[in-house]
Amino acid sequence: MEQDKRVLTVQDISCVGQCSLTVALPIISACGIETAILPSAVLSTHTGGFSGWTFRDLTDDIPAIVDHWQKEKLCFDAIYTGYLGSKRQIELVKDMFARLGTPDALKIVDPAMADHGKLYYGFDEAFAHEMATLVGTADIALPNITEAAMMTDTPYIGEGYDESYIRTLMDKVLALGAKTVVLTGVSYRAGELGVAVLSRGDAEISYYFHEKLQKSCHGTGDIFASAFVGAIVRGRDPLAAATVAADFTLAGMRITQKDDTHWYGTKFERALPMLVNELNK
Ligand code: PXL
Questions:
Q1: Which runs of consecutive H residues, i.e. helices, occur in the chain?
Q2: Confidence at residue 1, expressed as pLDDT on a 0 to 100 scale
Q3: 6-279 fold
């Protein structure tokens, strides 16, 4: 049997909305990995389409939690960060990377803050630049095209770009300091969507392309990132992990699209057995 691994994930709890921790915890656990959580904030819902949500920033609780874990000699084989609620939390995550990882812990950063050319509610350009410094410490960064463009001061192009645009974007993310970049939402042809993977020293980008569905769903970035973390910690290489994660995300989207009334998230739950089977092969 593989050695059991323990992952820490740091992101918000959106109580309703199928994103961030309510996605990461079940998905990574289903992958057979012990999953510890550190909530960066508690919101009644996510901020993408609801109005009037509550927001409790937990930044002030984080230092004591980290001190306690260090005192207990708890450490993690991978630390995966998603949506962070403030610039100070970015500094606190850098401190966690230094203090809470095993000697060869994987640092995985999803700079969850923007999509479709726009920052999520409450974030600004300065936050994107701060997030770029966290991405610079990552073994693996998981931005979408919007996030990569914002962190590297590159113009965002929604569609009609070519491979040289994507290569420039990925090189710039590597130049921030990340060792591998996994860029989501890449499409060179109508009807096709994919993930691009590039590590320092690679001559060529590797891709996994799949069908592009008509309608997008909320929370797919978090679902992809969580499944990617599960697969990489279970020993897949970055392209194989991106492939498993993209197939799982797509399966969740297909299930969601059968239900016209489900507008705020992605029904990934019924696709979990497929992910587990794939990882057990
Ligand atoms: O899915 C990313 C995400 C996470 N957390 C919160 C969000 C969003 C996207 O809108 O609002 C609170």
A1: 21-30, 62-71, 87-100, 125-135, 145-151, 163-176, 220-233, 238-257, 272-280
A2: 54
A3: UDP-N-acetylmuramoyl-L-alanine:D-glutamate ligase (3.40.1190)
Q: Is the pLDDT of residue 3 over 70?
A: no
Global pTM reads: 0.98
Q: Convert the pLDDT of each residue in 96-144 to its tens digit.
A: 999 999 999 999 999 999 999 999 999 999 999 999 999 999 999 999 9
Shortest-distance atom of ligand 1 to CA 47:
11
Q: Say how far apart CA 253 and CA 266 lie, in whole Å.
A: 6
Residue nearest ligand 1's atom 12 by CA: 46
Cα 85 to ligand 1 centre (Å):
10
> Crossing angle for the helix pair 272-280 and 220-233, nearest 10 degrees?
20
Residue 225, token pair as written in the block = 């990132």
Using alpha carbons, select from 84, 157, 79 the residue that is nearest to residue 127. Answer: 84
Closest residue by CA, ligand 1 atom 8? 46
Q: Which atom from ligand 1 is nearest to the alpha carbon of 19?
A: 1
Decide: 225 in ligand 1 pocket, CB within 6 A: no
Provide the 8-state DSSP code for 13: E
d(CA 222, CA 107): 16
Whether 19 is in the pocket of ligand 1, judged by its Cβ within 6 Å, is yes
Q: Specify the pLDDT at position 85.
A: 83
Q: CA angle, corner 168, sides to 226 and 194, nearest 5?
A: 40
Render pLDDT for 46-98 as a digit per residue (tens, 0 to 9): 999 999 999 999 999 999 999 999 999 999 999 999 999 889 999 999 999 99
Average pLDDT of the chain to the nearest whole number:
97
Q: Is 226 in the pocket of ligand 1 (CB under 6 A)?
A: no
State in Å: Cα 51 to ligand 1 middle: 13
Is 81 a pocket residue for ligand 1 (Cβ < 6 Å)? no
